[in-house]
Every structure is written in structure tokens, then in C-alpha cells.
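Comment thread on ticket #2218

A.B. wrote:
> Attaching the input chain for the structure job we discussed in standup.
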Amino acid sequence: MLKTDVFYILILTVLTQNELIPCSVCGDKSSGIHYGVHTCEGCKGFFRRSQSLSNSTYKCTRGQNCIVDRVNRNRCQYCRLQRCLKVGMSRAAVIFGRRSKKTKEKVADIARQYQQQATTEPAAPTCYSSYQSDIQNVIPISYNNQPTPSQPVYISGGYSAAGNGLYMTPAIADAPINYTVVPESASDYAQMAIPGSEPPGNPTGVYPAQTMVESHDFVKGLTNFFMNKFANRQKDFSLLTDLFDQNMTLSDSWRRFANDLTEIIQNLIELAKQVEGFNDLNQEIQINLLKRNVFEITLLVLTLSYDIDSGQLALANDKLPRNSHTEPYLTSAMHDCVSTLAQRRFSPQVIAILCGIVLLESDFVPPPYVERSNQTLYSALQYELGPNWEILYSDIAEMRLQTSKVSRLHLECLIRVKQLDMGLEQTLPPLYKELFADMNMNLNMINMTTTQFQ
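C.D. wrote:
> Ran it. Output below, let me know if you need it in another format.
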């Protein structure tokens, strides 16, 4: 690539690139890369909504060969969805929001091609013609936030002496050109960072090796703590009492259930303190993070005490039957969720890293406190998942949908039982009450999580 080309890539802003490249589905003005390809806001929203429905919901009455363009895109949902899939839109791709250097160069090449077309054919009406003057006035921008090529990266349980930086991400095909960039080694997988985020701000543009070593120590400390607290949770099921049994009242079952969860959550709070950035947050934000995410994290931990062969699930001191007499919806939903997770056979290290990722997920935490932790956690997660990380990431996205729904169901069932027994709340463990008593706020926060994954 010529120096002039490199300079052009540097001065071409992401916004201008997006506007130069039309929507791969309908040809309208694109707003960026959505679900793996350049699309407009309309096609992005349509594809997102289509993922909650079966493909059979859409029918074509015109031979499945309808024209999908800016004018006709709303006439046939079936053909529009097929067009989305044909150009490469993927639900898994939403997880990988950022692009690798090679991908960015390809996008710049595509943008340059469209600009050249506009220069040679000025009379032709195009979706990007109104932005030609903007390109000429773009000011050079600095990429000081990008790590230098000599920085260490997370590989094989540690950091190598050199690499391409922590902020590379898996390549997503950018329409209209179809291409694939395949990582060549384990270190390439390890260099991939948090999906959908930018590198944390650093006024110097330098990320010293000491910072990277500290990040590695944080992941190592997190996984070691998790192993000590949760990895050996196998129980003798014959010695455990069935919760929500017909011989136990609903209120008594809930008290025991709350006590079991509290014992697990106490260890999870200690685990949270191992997550870099969590202790830097004020106490109110820490509590809100736990209120929003701790039940989902509990479901992750319970995969280690689930017996796949017998289908039995142990809590701290009791076991949770799948088909209970007094809380059938909650117990069956928890079983289904934990069973699905357990069958993935994720290692305890993967579960520990996922716990850290879920803990920090929110829209009310100032980004500087969690960006570096998230990038480190995602880099470590991709290494632990191995060569099949891309497929497993898609599974994890579906998993998060399920855990957030079960978390909401838990709160709804708790609301109902408190209405049946007005004195129940006073007999619940204080920590459990603190985390789940303000159920309206919890439900609102969980609703935001559920919507995010739909």
C-alpha cells in the first residue's frame, strides 16, 4: 500500500467512511457496520427484530424473488431477510463490534472506490454525493489511543513480549466485498479484545508492560479465587433436601432457597472484589451492579454443581428439583438454564471470566472504571475458549438472553410469594433482602439487559 493510501486511511473518519458506503441490503445511506456488514438504520432494526421470530413467520407471495431496494424494502419481509442473510448479516456478528486493522483498510478501500466513482461520474445521483465536500475538509486525526506494535499481549495464561496489541478484533466481512481474515495462531486469538468497544483513553498513547502484567495478575487472581471457592462444589445429592417439596410450605421453601442463595452470593461478593475496577466504584454503584447482575452470576456458578447425568442441581445446602410442587415455573426455568450452560462444559476458568464480564455489565458505570478490565477479560475469554471461540461467543450471547429472563422470573416469583405471605420478607436473610427487596428497580435494570440481547 502506498504512503498516500495510508495517509488517506488515517484522515478518513469512520463517519465519512460509513456514509460513502451504501447499505448492503437496500442501497440506502449506511450508518455503519451492523451485524457484520454496512447497513442503514432501517435494515439494522429489521434484522434485529427478525431474530426474535422464526424464518417461517415471513412469507413471500411473489416467487421469493422480490427487489429489495430503498423504495421497495418494506414490501416483502421474507425477501428482505434473505437479502440480509445473503450479504452476511449475522446475529453472532453483533458481539464483534470492532474491526481488525485489515478490515478497516478494506473498508477504507471500499470508501475510496465510491469516492473515485463520484469523481469520475459527478452527474450520477448516488447515496454519497452530498458528502463529497465533507471529505475534502476532514482534518487529520491522531490514533494515539492505539497500542504500539511492541506491546505484550495475553497468550497462554500470560503476556508475550510483543504482539499487534490488545485491541485487535476478529474480522467481519464488510459488504460489498466478500473476504475473510483467519487468525493464524493462538496469539492472534489472544489479541482480540472486548466487542463493540474502543480502547480506553490514554493521554500518552503508551500502555507500558507493567500495566499489561497487572492485567494478567488480575485475571489470574480472579480465576484462582473462583477455583478455590466454587470449582469443587460436587455434592452428595442423597444428603440434600428437596426445596419447594410438597412436604414443605411455600414460605419455608423460599426461606431455605434465600439462605442457600445468600451463601453463594457472599462468595460472589468476594469474587467481585477480585475484578479490577470494581473496588474503585462508589458503594452505591457496586450495590446496583450486584442487584442487576448477581442472580445471573449465580446461575453461571451453579453449572459447576449440576449433575448432567442425573439432572440434579445442588444449591449451597439443598437441592433444587426440576419439577417442584410449589414453584414449578421458577425451578424448571432454573434447571433448563443451568442444564444448557452445563452441557457446554465450559471450564471453571471460563466461568470465572464470564462472571467478571457479567458483573461489570451496566449502562450506569463510568467507562474509565471498567474499560481496561473488560478488554482484559474478553481477551482472556477468547484464549480460554480456543479455536472455536467464534461459535462459542454466539452460544454465550444466547446464554445471556436465557439467564436474564430467569433472573427476571426469580423477581416476579418473589413478588408473588411476598404478596401471599406478608411476613416473609422480615424472615429473609438481610443480604438477600438488600439485593432483591427493591424489585421494581431490579426489574427495570433486568429489562434493559434483556432488551439489549434481543
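A.B. wrote:
> Thanks. Noting for the ticket: Residues 389-420 form the longest helix (32 residues).
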